[in-house]
Amino acid sequence: MPASVVPVRPATRRRIRSRALRYAATFTAPLLALAAFTWGGLWSWTLPVYAFMMIPLIELFLPTGHIAISEEEERAALEDPLFDLMLYAVVPVQWALLLLFLMTIDDPGIPGWEVAGRISSMGLLCGIYGINVAHELGHRARRWERGLARALLLTSLYMHFIIEHNRGHHRRVATADDPASARYGETVFAFWARSIVYSFLSAWHIEADRLRKSGGSSYGAGNEMIHAILWQGALLAVITLVWGPFTLLAFVAAAVIGILLLETVNYIEHYGLRRSRTPGGGHVRVMHHHSWNSDHLLGRLMLFELSRHSDHHWKASRKYQVLRSHAGAPQMPTGYPGMMVLCLVPPLFFRVMHPRLHKLAADHAHLELAA
């Protein structure tokens, strides 16, 4: 009997189900945010401390979790609905916590430091869920799943991401034409400005070009960028009318934090890496050595395997639960949360990453430094 039709063994299904349950660890973030919004006080800062102090510290001492998945295990993972159900559950959780945030943030009795903690907590949710989970769902083939992705992106005011990322970044990654690929020696702060501005402009160009090629009006009713701006404008208007200007500013601040978290991840994912040119003037195909990866377990679970980024670029339609860790893919010295903190100190980040970059460039003929 061909391997493709051999039934998956019950023991394999049980093993894969236990792996699926590990991703429930990501829901510790909304639980801490719930505590921040309801109990206040020091609880307001527990999620930022957890995400950017506790997890990076723990990952320094935990071994990396490199597990090769077999063909049978991959089939079992793709057949197990729990992996998808956890993604779908994020949508109501994110919107419920956003509503709670909006209802509780404008309280005259809350001190400023606590307000800042609550906004930071909501900002983390905007980045972890509002954009990262939307990234996973935005690559799905089913239209309603991409609709869920847009619903999440709305909570972060970054709905153009699905246009630029899917149709721009994946095509131009690790080239000078990609605003979301960081250059060698570029600080994360300079990258934020360049990536945010040019990704937004790129999304407009991509959408206008799509409509022009289909024979429609470039900036007509079918333009998804116009849809995104209308949806986001409507949300901002509702927040202003229902809760007032202070709540609006708090929400915008949280959304900005989520956007900066996304762009920080973009920064570390492709920092300094560039595809070499072909004789015809184009670029070589995206390979596994054109993205930075991390096999550190906590970051992988919290971010639904975002840190196995090379395999995602190799095949964007591959679901998170079957992304593979490749031996030839460049590895970060720690997990994504730790690297995000490290890059905020550019001299230290360069000292850690530049030797790795030079070794990569020497080892791979189709890799250049993105100067």
Number of beta strands: 2
**What is the string of SSEs from the N terminus onward?**
HHHHHHHHHHHEHHHHE
Structural class: mainly alpha
- What is the number of helical segments per DSSP (H or I, 4+ residues)? 15
Radius of gyration: 21 Å
Strand content: under 5%
Note the main attributes of this structure.
371 residues; mainly alpha; 2 strands; two-stranded antiparallel sheet; globular; 15 helices; 63% helix
Overview of this protein structure:
There is one protein chain. The protein is an all-alpha fold and 371 residues long. It is built from 15 helices and two strands. It has helices at residues 10-22, 28-38, 46-61, 71-79, 82-104, 112-138, 143-154, 161-172, 188-213, 224-243, 245-270, 297-302, 309-314, 336-342, 346-363, and strands at residues 273-275, 367-369. Strands 1-2 form a two-stranded antiparallel ribbon. The longest helix is centred in the middle third of the chain and has 27 residues, at 112-138. It is globular and about 60 Å long.
How is the topology of this model organized?
Elements: H1 10-22, H2 28-38, H3 46-61, H4 71-79, H5 82-104, H6 112-138, H7 143-154, H8 161-172, H9 188-213, H10 224-243, H11 245-270, E1 273-275, H12 297-302, H13 309-314, H14 336-342, H15 346-363, E2 367-369
Antiparallel strand pairs: 1-2
Helix pairs in contact: 1-4, 2-3, 2-5, 2-6, 3-14, 5-6, 5-7, 6-7, 6-8, 6-11, 8-9, 9-11, 10-11
